[in-house]
Design a protein that fits this description.
The chain has a single domain, classed as Aldolase class I (TIM Barrel, Alpha-Beta Barrel). Helices cover 31% and strands 18% of the residues. It binds 5-O-phosphono-D-xylulose. This is Ribulose-phosphate 3-epimerase.
Length: 230
């Protein structure tokens, strides 16, 4: 996968009004991905939504869906999200002892496969596995809740993967999730993030669509001038 030609912004509907999800997705038309947090109250201490809501959302929007599964047993539960039509399905490294098999099943079911790691998880044991996924999701807050403070220490993992991708040794999209807003997006962009998830920064704005555009413009100031278009 080549680097996208511009920063990608993925609004997280965790911060949207769950009683008006179709309207909330229309408010962010023009976003690169729609980030959907699936939480099972076991892998994380929160419960959100599951496959039936994702299936309905897929009918309500054309924005490519980025499903972030914060769940136990992703080998069992991840492929149906791909079969339903999600563009990218991300599972947690900490939730499985066979990430390659989960990624293979997601891809076989028709979606891009993403690997997520919590802030405290070391990247080193997963570097080889990154050859078998399309996206690395670096969590910059503890998974479970929106509106938390950005953890800048995770950017060393972003820099490591950025350098490997730029050197042609890996081909993976680098995504960051948690605490991304006008105060933090620039340091993340400078470290080499391709895709920025933003929940409260987008949905607490008066105009979520303009908030997406503003975040993209801020990150673009740190974009390399000549990147190969995806
Ligand atoms: O996965 C998660 C939280 O677990 C995120 O996707 C949050 O939804 C991001 O929200 P903000 O930190 O941007 O408010």
């Amino acid at each position: 996968m080549c680097r996208p030609s511009a920063p990608m912004i993925a609004p997280s509907i965790l911060s949207a009004d769950f009683a008006n999800l179709a309207a909330e997705t229309r408010a962010v038309e023009g976003s690169d991905w729609l980030h959907v947090d699936v939480m099972d109250a076991h892998f994380v201490p929160n419960l959100t939504l599951g496959l039936p809501v994702v299936e309905s959302l897929l009918k309500a929007t054309d924005i490519p869906m980025d499903c972030h599964l914060m769940i136990e047993d992703p080998r069992r539960w991840a492929p149906p999200y791909a079969e339903a039509g999600a563009y990218n399905v991300t599972f947690h490294a900490e939730a499985t002892d066979d990430p390659r098999a989960v990624a293979r099943d997601i891809r076989a079911a028709g979606a891009k496969a993403g690997l997520a790691i919590k802030p405290g998880t070391d990247l080193t044991p997963y570097l080889e596995i990154l050859r078998d996924v399309d996206t690395l999701l670096v969590m910059s807050v503890e998974p479970g809740f929106g509106g938390q403070r950005f953890i800048p220490e995770v950017l060393s993992k972003v820099r490591t993967v950025r350098n490997l991708v730029d050197a042609g040794e890996l081909s993976v999209l680098v995504e960051i999730d948690g605490g991304i807003n006008a105060d933090t997006i620039e340091e993340a962009a400078e470290a080499g993030v391709d895709c920025f998830v933003a929940g409260s920064a987008v949905y607490s704005a008066d105009d979520p669509g303009r908030a997406v555009a503003a975040l993209r413009a801020q990150a673009a100031a740190f974009w390399p001038t000549a990147v190969e278009a995806e």
